[in-house]
């Protein structure tokens, strides 16, 4: 049975053959005080192919300075999932085509709105079965952070450097070249776990603390779905870092075997 899950604001779960995915997103204190909606969006889904089940997780963070940031983030999630499905149908296709397709589909998703009014970051991990192992592809534009834990080790992509804090965030809808996308591929021979964080929380989680955060999320797996989502949302709302004004989104994916 194929189970898919999508959410833009609440924690939900998909489960099949030992795989699990859940996440949550909450508005930041600054947006709550201003009466603004959450401008993050996320999704986790999977689908069957001839080669096996493909897994996809994505987080988009609309730029707060843009009037249609929320719509841009939601469009980013839809475009990322559509691009992933199309790209995965062409085995061996370069990852450059994945991000080019995502860019075009996002502009179609936001039309007739002006892309600049809808600017959003985009962070996606795509897991494709490849024989007896997994091909894990991560693409990232703008801030946000992805971490992947496999039997072969721990890999991270994204997260802001000190230099980036003083620069304008690059995003869908802002001027940039295709090489602004960060792209990473890793192989996994067995179970792997994925963590996606929007910058409202990624900025506060150090690289040394990422494995501990993954372990905490793993401990939530045994809880019923409503309790899991409630615990994650509560943690995000009570995030103990001064100045934590931005929206916060976490997506967790764990897959057992090919």
Description:
It is an enzyme of class 3 (hydrolase). Residues 28-234 form the PPM-type phosphatase domain. Its EC number is 3.1.3.16. With 258 residues, the chain is of the alpha+beta class. The chain has a single domain (5-255), classed as Phosphatase 2c, domain 1 (4-Layer Sandwich), CATH 3.60.40. It is 26% helix and 33% strand. The strands form 2 sheets. It has a 6-stranded antiparallel sheet. Strands 2-3-12-11-8-9 form a 6-stranded antiparallel sheet.
What's the SSE pattern?
A: EEEHEEHHEEEEEEHHHE
Task: Compute the CA-based radius of gyration.
Answer: 17 Å
Strand order of the largest sheet: 1-4-5-6-7-10
The biggest beta sheet reads: 6 strands, antiparallel
Uncertain stretches of 5 or more adjacent residues:
1-17, 161-166
Counting H and I runs of at least 4 residues, what is the number of helices?
6
Q: Give the total of beta strands.
A: 12
Domain count:
1
User: The CATH topology is what?
Assistant: Phosphatase 2c, domain 1
CATH architecture: 4-Layer Sandwich
What is the CA-CA span between the terminal residues?
Answer: 15 Å
- What spatial form do the alpha-carbon principal axes imply? globular
Quickly name the level 1 CATH class. Answer: Alpha Beta
Mean pLDDT: 86
Quaternary organisation of the protein chains: single chain
**CATH superfamily, please?**
PPM-type phosphatase domain
**Helix content estimate:** 25-40%
* Secondary-structure content class: alpha+beta
**Beta strand %:** 25-35%
Strand and helix layout:
Blueprint: E1 5-7, E2 13-16, E3 19-26, H1 29-33, E4 40-49, E5 52-61, H2 69-88, H3 95-110, E6 122-130, E7 133-141, E8 145-150, E9 153-158, E10 182-188, E11 192-197, H4 199-202, H5 210-219, H6 225-237, E12 248-255
Antiparallel strand pairs: 1-4, 2-3, 3-12, 4-5, 5-6, 6-7, 7-10, 8-9, 8-11, 11-12
Pfam families: PP2C_2
InterPro entries: PPM-type-like_dom_sf, PPM-type_phosphatase-like_dom
Keywords: Hydrolase
């Amino acid at each position: 049975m194929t189970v898919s899950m999508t959410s833009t604001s609440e924690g939900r779960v998909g489960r099949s053959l030992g795989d699990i995915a859940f996440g949550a997103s909450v508005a930041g204190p600054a947006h709550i005080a201003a009466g603004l909606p959450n401008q993050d969006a996320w999704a986790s889904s999977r689908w069957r192919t001839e080669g096996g089940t493909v897994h996809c997780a994505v987080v988009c963070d609309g730029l707060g300075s843009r009037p249609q940031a929320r719509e841009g983030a939601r469009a980013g999630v839809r475009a990322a999932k559509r691009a992933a499905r199309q790209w995965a149908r062409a085995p061996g296709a370069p990852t450059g085509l994945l991000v080019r397709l995502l860019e075009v589909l996002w502009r179609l998703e936001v039309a007739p709105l002006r892309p600049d009014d809808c600017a959003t970051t985009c962070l996606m991990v795509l897991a494709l079965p490849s024989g007896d192992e997994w091909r894990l592809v991560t693409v990232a534009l703008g801030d946000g952070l992805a971490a992947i834990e496999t039997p072969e080790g721990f890999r991270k992509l994204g997260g802001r450097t000190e230099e980036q804090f003083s620069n304008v965030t690059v995003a869908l809808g802002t001027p940039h070249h295709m090489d602004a996308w960060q792209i990473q591929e890793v192989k996994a021979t067995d179970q792997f776990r994925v963590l996606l964080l929007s910058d409202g929380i990624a900025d506060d989680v150090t690289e040394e603390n990422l494995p501990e955060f993954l372990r905490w999320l793993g401990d939530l797996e045994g809880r019923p779905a409503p309790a899991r989502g409630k615990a994650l949302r509560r943690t995000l709302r009570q995030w103990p870092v001064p100045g934590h004004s931005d929206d916060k989104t976490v997506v967790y994916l764990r897959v057992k075997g090919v």
